[in-house]
Design goal:
Helix content: 40-55%
Radius of gyration: 17 Å
Strand order of the largest sheet: 2-3-1-4-5
Number of strands: 5
Order of helices and strands: EHEHHEHEHHHEHH
Largest sheet: 5 strands, parallel
Distance between the termini: 7 Å
Number of helices: 9
Strand content: 5-15%
């Protein structure tokens, strides 16, 4: 667990999960969304985004959250594990709806001063809710194919199908319990080994 990529469909909870794991393992956390977006929700030029991602992951230990196939060739060959939050569509969409409404009401600033608005969320083709609807199934197929094709044989895959599995696993990391690293959440509760970014118990 030296270099970890946390993936999953939009609004699955990647940022929250990776933040918790980074604290437990004392690893730098890299939020790829923060590197990708510029002011006014403008995506940064591809070359700039790749440069920022390469610089941010230049160290020996890190946890990066985000899918971003455009920089997979930079991160995945150097990563040691992928954690996949593979949650159902109803669960992810409900999370997306609650998060979006909360952010719209609070005016919470995101990266570079960007904020979510009701207009953007509900009256725009760029709505995150539409994005979740249109990409959930495709993202699942894409990640399943990446796991199966063996293109990155050094990676350990850890898949969680429910937030309770992920929380239980994080609890094991925190307490030094049998935090596991197989390919499914169910078996992740049964198998484990010690190790981690900074020597704590980890997957």
């Amino acid at each position: 667990m030296q270099r970890v990529v946390v993936v999953g469909t939009s609004c699955a909870g990647k940022s929250t999960f990776s933040s918790k794991l980074a604290i437990l393992l004392e690893c730098p956390r890299i939020e790829l969304d923060a590197l990708y977006w510029g002011p006014d929700w403008r995506a940064k030029p591809a070359a700039e985004f790749r440069g920022l991602a390469l610089e941010a992951t230049s160290g020996g230990r890190w946890i990066a959250d985000g899918n971003y196939g455009s920089i997979r060739d930079l991160l995945w060959p150097r990563a040691t594990a992928v954690i996949w939050l593979d949650y159902s569509f109803p669960r992810v969409f409900w999370r997306a709806l609650k998060r979006t409404i909360t952010r719209c009401l609070s005016g919470q600033p995101l990266w570079h001063g960007n904020r979510e608005s009701f207009r953007k969320a509900f009256l725009s083709r760029d709505s995150i809710l539409l994005w979740v609807i249109s990409t959930h199934r495709r993202r699942r197929r894409e990640l399943a194919a990446l796991r199966q094709n063996g293109a990155y044989p050094q990676l350990r895959w850890i898949e969680f199908r429910h937030p309770r599995e992920a929380e239980r696993w994080l609890g094991d990391v925190h307490t030094g319990g049998p935090a596991a690293g197989p390919v499914s959440g169910a078996s992740a509760r049964r198998q484990g080994r010690r190790g981690g970014c900074a020597g704590q118990a980890g997957p």
